[in-house]
C-alpha cells in the first residue's frame, strides 16, 4: 500500500536547490512578516505568493494534505472559540459597528467581526504552505551542515537534523501500530463512530511513545560509541555553499518584512481598517 508521508523528497526545483539555512532564514522572516501585521492586503499577497512558491517546488499536495486538513479543522475550532469568547472583538478593533444579524444574547454577527476572522484565517494560510514546504523540501543532513556553516553549534544542528529525519519514522510507527490495533478488532476506519475512532487513536499513543523512546536509546548509544561531541568541529558530507539564489531569496524576504513594518506605520497600527 502506498503511504503518503510528511518527509523530504528530492525534486529538481528552485526551492530544493536553496540551502537548508536559506530556507530556515526565509521561513523565520516570512513568519515574522505574517505575525506582526493584520493588514489584509499584505496577508492576501502572502497567501497567493505562498501558493505560487508551493507550486514552483513541484511538491504534490497529497503529500501534505492530511496535515493541511488537520489545520483546517483547528482553524475552524479556533474561529468559533474566538467568536464565543469575544463576539465584538472586531468592533473594538476597528471602532465601528455594522450589524448583519443577531444569533442570541450578546452574539451578533457584524461586518467588523467577520473581517477580523478573515484576517485570522489569512494569517494562518499565509504561513501554512511555507512551513509545510520547509519540512518536505529540506534535506535534514544538508540542513544541519548549513546551520553549522552560519555559526550554529554542530551538536544543535545535528539534533535538529535528527528531529526532521525521524518525523517519517514516527508516522510509519503510527501506521503500523494502527494496523496492529485494527487486526485485534479495534475499528479505526471511517466506518466506526467518531468517538470510537478517537478512543482507538488514543490507545496508539502509549505504544508510539514507547517505540520512540526505544529509538532514542538506540540513536544515543550509537552516537556515544562513535564519540560524537568530543571534537569542537566536524566535517559534513552534504555541505553546500551559498549561491546567488540564496542571497536573492533572503533579500526578497527582508524586503517583505520591511514592507510589513512600513504598512504598520502607514496604517497607524497593525490593523488595516476599511470601515473608516
Short recap of the structure:
This protein is mainly alpha-helical and 276 residues long. It is 67% helix and 4% strand. The model has no long low-confidence stretch (mean pLDDT 80).
Explain this structure to me?
It is found in: Membrane. By secondary structure, this protein is mainly α. The chain folds into 2 domains: 173 residues, no CATH class; 97 residues, no CATH class. The chain has 11 helices and 2 strands. The protein has a two-stranded antiparallel ribbon. α2 packs parallel to α11 and α7 runs antiparallel to α8. The longest helix is centred in the C-terminal third of the chain and has 32 residues. The N and C termini lie far apart (57 Å).
Task: Please describe the structure with a list of short key phrases separated by commas or semicolons.
276 residues; mainly alpha; single chain; 11 helices; 4% strand; 2 strands
Amino acid at each position: 500500500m502506498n503511504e503518503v508521508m510528511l518527509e523530504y523528497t528530492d525534486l529538481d526545483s528552485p526551492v530544493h536547490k536553496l540551502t537548508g539555512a536559506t530556507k530556515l532564514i526565509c521561513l523565520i522572516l516570512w513568519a515574522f512578516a505574517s505575525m506582526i501585521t493584520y493588514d489584509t492586503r499584505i496577508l492576501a499577497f502572502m497567501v497567493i505568493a505562498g501558493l505560487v512558491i508551493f507550486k514552483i517546488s513541484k511538491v504534490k499536495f497529497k503529500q501534505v494534505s492530511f496535515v493541511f486538513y488537520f489545520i483546517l479543522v483547528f482553524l475552524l475550532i479556533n474561529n468559533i472559540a474566538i467568536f464565543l469568547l469575544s463576539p465584538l472583538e472586531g468592533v473594538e478593533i476597528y471602532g465601528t459597528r455594522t450589524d448583519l444579524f443577531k444569533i442570541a444574547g450578546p452574539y451578533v454577527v457584524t461586518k467588523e467581526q467577520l473581517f477580523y476572522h478573515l484576517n485570522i484565517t489569512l494569517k494562518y494560510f499565509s504561513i501554512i504552505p511555507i512551513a509545510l514546504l520547509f519540512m518536505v523540501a529540506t534535506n535534514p543532513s544538508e540542513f544541519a551542515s548549513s546551520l553549522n556553516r552560519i555559526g550554529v553549534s554542530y551538536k544543535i544542528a545535528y539534533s535538529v537534523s535528527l528531529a526532521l529525519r525521524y518525523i517519517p519514522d514516527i508516522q510509519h510507527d503510527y501506521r503500523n501500530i494502527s494496523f496492529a490495533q485494527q487486526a485485534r478488532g479495534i475499528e479505526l476506519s471511517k466506518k466506526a463512530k467518531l468517538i470510537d475512532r478517537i478512543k482507538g487513536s488514543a490507545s496508539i499513543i502509549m505504544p508510539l511513545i514507547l517505540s520512540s523512546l526505544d529509538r532514542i536509546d538506540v540513536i544515543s548509544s550509537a552516537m556515544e560509541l562513535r564519540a560524537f561531541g568530543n571534537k569542537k568541529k566536524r566535517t559534513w558530507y552534504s555541505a553546500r555553499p551559498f549561491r546567488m539564489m540564496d542571497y536573492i531569496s533572503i533579500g526578497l524576504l527582508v524586503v517583505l518584512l520591511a514592507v510589513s513594518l512600513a504598512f504598520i506605520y502607514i496604517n497607524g497600527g497593525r490593523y488595516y481598517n476599511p470601515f473608516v
